[in-house]
TrEMBL record:
Residues 46-69 are annotated as: Disordered. It comes from the Eukaryota. This is Uncharacterized protein.
Length: 454
């Protein structure tokens, strides 16, 4: 809040200016209520002088008369932030996204954009910023307000150079920060290079408007058998059709030398529901992406990556069913990644105890069980192993694979191997989100399942 000295100083200067220039001290359109604009008088300036003896104190200036740079929200931004708000209402958590760790010391990364599910006309930004700064463990005067947008409340702030960005990065990534922001009705928080984020917003809108950017892999849509033979350079490993999945393309920066796709091998990595939903709705890497740090294995088989040990199965809440499918009941997310061939240091066998000595292809008819896990080296590379928009990273994430089914996916024909592999009722190990005994009974009774694309 603006200090009492700041108010005294502001009015004293205004009165002195009016006498000297023979003008009215107050603007006519403020009904004799003085207006202090953000950044007009600093805290240091306001408290450096004593209050003049002749100056009579008056009531504090109403917060609604403290004006911040404001601009309306654009139609494309409205669509984007409504999607982010959907994540908040679905999960009860804010969508927190962060720039690459490599970029956090750049000047452009000192900015934070907040989306707050409040009425713009009755919103107290100063109160919220004080609480938000407590989460970051910094002082309110360590941040400057750059602009505020209406349509809910969208605030853009900049962290001053005296603040250690690594500390902010660490604090904003903590689970307790997510919980506290959720209680403050913050539905979106991006920390980092906003220019790059704005490019992503534009890209996401193009993806939604142009179906050619996305793919449905199924008969009657995009479909092939065996290894794909095309003119594109996808590295030294074969690429097989991920049948039954829908792919959503993700934005990646183009450096002019490597767009993060050319010459790289396609592989997959299962992920949690909340993580996948955040990517689907925003196209951004959530702060929780740190869980995919060094030591994570990848697979050239989406069948293997979709096992509930790696990819959480989630029953779609009834109120959000139409957001994904008219008839779908369950959903899974898998990351489509691209790896530099030189970074694959070893190819290993499956680790879910699914192997049958009489059948070397239990999991995937195209890939041997003994060659289904890739170990990726990140030595001499301080970047996170999975990066969404850095083509120089060992692994780039180029798409989000989504599978929606009309029953539990363990009943799909391509998932029958789950029941002869490691499969347990502990959701901390196998994220089935269903009763395992009931699933086995359904399987025994011949109950089936199908993928849906409606």
């Amino acid at each position: 809040m603006i200090s009492q000295h700041a108010l005294f100083r502001a009015r004293a200067l205004k009165a002195h200016y009016a006498i000297f220039n023979k003008k009215n001290a107050l603007d006519a359109d403020t009904n004799d209520t003085p207006v202090v604009r953000a950044g007009e008088i600093s805290k240091d300036q306001a408290t450096s002088d004593e209050t003049p003896a002749w100056f009579e104190p008056s009531q504090p200036i109403p917060s609604e008369n403290i004006r911040y740079p404001h601009e309306p929200i654009s139609p494309s931004e409205k669509i984007y932030y409504e999607a982010c708000k959907k994540y908040y209402h679905t999960t009860g958590k804010p969508l927190i996204a962060i720039s690459s760790r490599d970029d956090i010391e750049l000047a452009s990364s000192r900015r934070i954009r907040l989306g707050i599910d409040e009425d713009y006309n009755t919103f107290d930004l100063e109160e919220y910023l004080n609480k938000f700064c407590q989460i970051l463990n910094i002082n309110r005067n360590d941040v400057d307000i750059l602009k505020v947008q209406s349509g809910s409340v969208l605030a853009e702030i900049q962290i001053q150079t005296r603040v250690n960005l690594q500390m902010v990065y660490n604090n904003i990534s903590k689970p307790e920060a997510e919980e506290r922001m959720g209680k403050m009705k913050i539905f979106f928080c991006f920390f980092g290079d906003l220019a790059n984020m704005d490019q992503n917003v534009e890209f996401r809108n193009n993806v939604k408007l142009n179906g050619d950017w996305n793919r449905i892999y199924y008969q009657g849509h995009t479909y092939w058998t065996g290894a794909l033979n095309s003119h594109r350079n996808r590295g030294s490993k074969p690429y097989y059709c991920p049948v039954g999945w829908r792919r959503y393309s993700l934005f990646m920066k183009n450096t002019g030398t490597d767009n993060g796709r050319t010459g790289r091998c396609i592989c997959y990595h299962g992920t949690k529901f909340e993580y996948g939903l955040a990517i689907l709705l925003s196209g951004l890497k959530p702060a929780s992406a740190a869980e995919h740090g060094p030591g994570v294995y990848f697979s050239p088989s989406i069948n293997y990556a979709s096992h509930p040990r790696y990819s959480e199965i989630k029953k779609i809440p009834l109120e959000y069913q139409n957001s994904f499918s008219q008839s779908g009941k369950y959903i899974q997310f898998v990351l489509e990644c691209r790896v530099q061939p030189s970074k694959i240091i070893s190819i290993e066998k499956e680790t879910l105890r699914a192997t049958d000595v009489s059948n070397p292809n239990v999991i995937d008819p195209n890939i041997k069980d003994s060659e289904i896990e890739w170990v990726v080296s990140i030595k001499h590379d301080d970047r996170e192993i999975v990066d969404f928009d850095d083509p120089n990273s060992a692994i780039t994430c180029s798409g989000l694979m989504v599978r929606v089914t009309n029953n539990h996916p363990s009943l799909l024909s391509e998932s029958q191997w789950w029941h002869t592999s490691h499969l347990c009722a502990d959701n901390r190990c196998c994220c089935l989100n269903a009763d395992l005994t009931d699933l086995k009974t359904q399987k025994k009774n011949g109950v089936t399942c199908s993928v849906v694309f409606d």
